[in-house]
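so the lab meeting is tmrw and i was supposed to have these ready like two days ago... anyway. pasting both below. for each one the top line is the aa sequence and the line under it is the structure tokens. i havent really looked at them closely yet so no promises
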Amino acid sequence: MIYLLIVVLAVALDQITKYFAKLYLEGRTAYEIIPNFFSFDYVENRGAAFGIMQGKHIFFYVVTFIAIAIILYIFITEFNTLAMYEKVFLSFFLAGILGNFIDRVFRGYVIDFISFKFGSYQYPCFNLADSYMCVIIVLFIGYYFYLKIKDKNAKKSN
């Protein structure tokens, strides 16, 4: 099944990049790719997005299990009614959840290493798993509004 392959490959890519981040960035200063804008910087995140809720491991395990259960339930019960884009979105979202969950279980923290700076604002470090989830949320919201606008225009035409 292609969607399982998406999950496996996306999780593998996330874990490989975190492995190399730990190997080459841990204990070193940030490696600037584009000065004052984009760098690789090793961070051990023991919280959630942007470092909030530090050390709340039980909470993260419970929320993760619930999220995985919901996504698997949707895949199992609604597979034939889901559009292809919905299956892809769910696959990448599941990959993001699993990528960070693997870190929490085996390391006790999530490795973040991608860093952007906008002027004096330092955006919090993140990783590929975070990117999967955030990009999918943005795409889903964008597609939702696209469908609403399309539906509204279709109703006007009738």
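ok protien two:
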Amino acid sequence: MLNQERQDEILKRLSVRGRVIAAELAREFGVSENAIRRDLRQMAEQGLCRRVYGGALLPAPDAGNIQIRSGNFVENKQRMSQCITKYLKNGQTIFIDASSTNIAIAAGLPRDVSLTVVTNAPAVAIALSEHTLCKTMVLGGIFNAIKGACLGSQTVDLARQIFPDILILGACGVDVTLGITALEPEEAELKRCLMQQSSRVIVPVTLNKIGTAAPFRLSDISDIDVLIVPEGLSNETLEQFVLTGISVEIAD
């Protein structure tokens, strides 16, 4: 098998399984692990995979700016928003960070619950503008138009003064082994800070981000409390997440 043929086959398996393990590929193709690692390195240089220890994952999707992403998976995001309701109580302080999924979740928060919502995303604040029982605080900082968020050292300094009851966290990549990842270092720094200070961490995520990896790691999967996903997650993947000790909810 030529190198390109082997890489094409690896890409097919990545597309189906979401991950490949170098040792298994080496045995199957009858080549050394070094040869497989070279394949994965070349594929990673082309943006076809994300190398991780022992193998590779699909790269986390980057669908462009927040306006474009807000139009994707709209129905799934609305259903995930409904799953959040059971965790909310009057008087809680909730941090909703920047993501297209979290904009939909903010818009769907129940109007009969009194909340304080803190966010670094102006679009989240706008989605709450008609929630009369919600006090909304927007953290300042340098506005990143692609992410639709205020980021940077000023934002992190402000976030360090807040200890939310619930953090609704946007994730770029979610994998059982690698954990939660983000595309940009500035957003990763803020998300880590918020995770450390929140009593409960809820991660709503669309299926295209499951089994993928972005460049900057936030935490282990076990560091979150609840993972909310739409229908379509395989039973095998669902079981793997449950075995980490987190709660997994399917928004059906």
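from a quick look at the 2nd one: Residues 36 and 179 are 24 Å apart (CA to CA). The longest helix spans residues 3-17. will dig more after coffe
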